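Write out this protein's structure.
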Amino acid sequence: MGAPEKTTTSNSNSMQRVKVYRLNDDGKWDDQGTGHVTIDYIERSEELGLFVIDEEDNETLLVHRISSDDIYRKQEDTIISWRDSEYSSELALSFQETTGCSYIWDNIYNVQRNLNFNTLSNETYHGANSELRELPEVELSTLPSILKVVVESSITDQLCVTELILHDQKFFRKLMDLFSVCEDLENYDGLHILYKIVRGIILLNSLPIFEKLFSDELIMDIIGCLEYDPDVPHFHHRKFLKEHVVFKEAIPIKDPLALSKIHQTYRISYLKDVVLSRVLDEATVASLNSIIHSNNGMVVTMLKDDNIFIKELFTRLKSPSLGLDSKMNLVYFVQEFCNLSKSLQVVQQLRLFRDLVTEGIFDVIADILHSEDKKLILTGTDILMLFVSQDPSLLRSYVSRKEGASLIGLLVKSMLKDFGDDMHCQFLEIIRSLLDTYSPAGQRDAIVDIFYKRHLDELLDVITSSCSNRNFGNKKSAKPEILMNICDLLCFCVPQHPYKIKSIFMLPGVIDKVLSLTCRKEKYLVVAAIRFTRTLISLKDEQLMNHIAKNNLFKPIVDVFVGNGSRYNLLNSAVLELFEYIRKENLKILVKYLVETFWEQLVKFDNLPSLQSLKVKYEQVMEQATSQTGAYGLNARRRVDERALDKEEEDYFNEDSDEEDSTSASMPRATRVRPQPSLSNGSATNSSSSSPRAGGLVDYADDEYDDENYKPPPRKKKSEDDDEAGLELRLKRKLPSSKQEPDLVKKQRLTGKSHKSKESVFATLCSTLSQAVLPSKKTTNAPNSQDTNVGPTNDKTCQDTSPNEEKEADESGETVASKMAINGS
């Protein structure tokens, strides 16, 4: 069940890296392992099959006999699946590279075509196969026969030719010796035939043949044969490779296998891209790319696993005595090394980049950015871009630390530097990646603070200095591409950090710096300034919009729009889109500001639908404002009246005790109530504690009417209704002072208070006044009698009064009662 011995021991270049999956009974794909796939003859059989050999222990993971039936499916350029009758289940191969998948797919297709042809023409196939049991001898006279076998054989016979070539171990050596003889004899006919034979063998697209052709012993002779294309002028490719192509070792590579793979990879690339670029088919190109990719991965793996090599590399890079040329070579090597790492698996790539960070790659790049050599700076930036595309968190983590904070400043400074024709946007992309809000909070906050505190003003100053009339055309003026990059960065920062942007651009004159780009003659810079304004107002912040309106910041935009006239261009569309956005989003502050400030300038464009809609929106806003103002005025007046009522009530209750004190003081002495004298049993009646009196009435001690046998009648408890009536009386006494208040509002406010409390206080007031002023019954005292007759009065004391005093008290009581009745009604 295993493949032949040569299959398991062949070089990894002849295999494609895959994962083997099998569909289980639950409908899920089970991972069977990872290995390399190749197509070879099944042991003890003449049939071809797929072999997958485990990459770790060289065990056979899968052997599948290729079927002539249409059971194979190709999915997403990297997966080949089929239903295997031997395993009675679905199988799938997931390729690491699309080129490997394409190569195996093409080979399966070729094998199926041969099998179908064998079924249809079994006799012919065997006849042809019998003729190809061996190749003709490699001699000058047999070259035409060899060419016919290689080039003119059918697709079915090509597999036999491949096997015969691989079986003859000396075939290529004999062919190259014959090439040397023909070249020495200048036998161009023989050289042209040799060119066609070598080209035909390459087009057989067999990986084992490629292994032999591209070996160090044969590769230069193979390229020599391909120099004699009869259809194109002769070109000395070998001379170019030997004399003009120089292999530079920035640091010595001591592994001979790694050196061999480096040289082989370059020569295959040269062969593919230069020598045979016009004759190779897609399948052969895919196979050659697969070999190159595999070689690159092998070289990177061998170098990264060599700890001595990596340490020596970074020791030289950090050496202060390193010359500029040596430094350039080392930096170029690191760049190429990082580029080649793309051939590795993702996990291995991440591990490699983290190892480089540990060795101090970012410190080296920071030192590179300090250089004055522009090529060196761009190369260092390319290395940073590789890290950003692979794992941005590595760079963010470095920059957020104290020792890496200066790298942002170097990137900003480099972004503002003129690199001539080599100007790129790498610096802008790296800064964007650092400021991205998707980064972890701790890293993001530190980086954002550094950028806004130290470097944003520097970017704005570049715009200002480049837009000043004095600096047009001067060295101080930055290139338009640099100004465009600054605008792009600002537009990126607005939605990413709205609070930071607001706090900075609310300062006087900051937005004006960006809008000074409207003075530039480059229209795309004017549009960039308008785009920034459009991005800024998309925050929909009222304070920011008020700042724009207050400082008339749209003036330069309207001026360039009016100056552009009726020309329909990008500038015209950008401004109209800005107006349309303001209208659609109902930004009332900006709508009023635009129409009220600039309508005299914009009125000549009122035929444009956007401006017509803007004017209609303005009228709607003003109508809404008018209606809201009327309703607001009524509500405000209501609130003022209510506040006045509250204040009057509060003042009244605060002054109430003083009024009643003054009323009590103005009463005749006869109306004042004296306290009950001490009883015969020694107890004294405390009228203030047992029956609290309203109105501020004062108890006086009266010793003239002591009567030891006097027993006061029981006091009646004041009802709650009396208390409420007293409160209502007191409140109504204050109503005439607030006649300026609407009656309806007064009634609502007074009714809102506790109705029970009003009635209780009113009842208390009436009861108190009746006790203080009105005598309930005339009391008759016998002149020389010790007994006192007590009538049914509301007071606990019985007072002796003269007839005149009683009459005066009756009159005053009736007067007060009548006034209270009138006011109460």
